[in-house]
DNA oxidative demethylase AlkB (Reyranella aquatilis), 213 residues
Amino acid sequence: MQQSLFEPEGGKEALASGAAVLRGFAAKRESALLAAIRAIEARSPFRHMVTPGGFEMSVAMTNCGTAGWVTDRAGYRYQSTDPVSGKPWPALPATFLDLADEAATAAGHPGFVPDACLINRYEPGTRLSLHQDKDEADYAHPIVSVSLGLPANFQFGGPKRSDPVRRVALEHGDVVVWGGPSRLFHHGVLTLKNGEHPMTGARRFNLTLRRAL
Ligand code: SIN
Ligand code: FE2
């Protein structure tokens, strides 16, 4: 069956069952989102976490919300305090909550209320290898992923690591949502290319809004 994956009215591209790319969905909030990231990093700075296997991640990370995703030699988990500051993570800004709800609804997952947001900072040469988001308590909730700054090639595979992977070019303001049948699908980000973005310089930020607890 041949079917158009692009619906011009909403700029929504189906990726898999339960998964969609919402083109430019976050664009009108770009200034508020970037200001919120600056406020968060002033209290919980970006840091390079270490995998349980002892490798330092090339992507720098921080969090906001009642729980934050961390990794160290002890494993992957969510925790309520930032191990760097020793304090609770900064609260989820209203602009993140509103965007998460609207994007999830647009992608067919209404009523999404995240309690955690992992913030990734990519510089040219950094990448995020194929993985599943599976440290959350309940997979009934979707993931809402917001791209800001430099473009990236996002990979979206399937339930098995060896499943074929689609490559999706993500631009500033694009939002990807996956949930339901594709909630545990593998995904990653290919090595970021050199570039300069008018709002972020030589960086890409990604917000992944989750319901962790
Ligand atoms: C992630 O899987 O945590 C981030 C995905 C992205 O940066 O687009
Ligand atoms: Fe992820």
In short: Residues 12-210 form a domain with the Jelly Rolls fold (CATH 2.60.120.590). The chain has one domain: 12-210. The first strand starts at residue 6 and ends at 7.
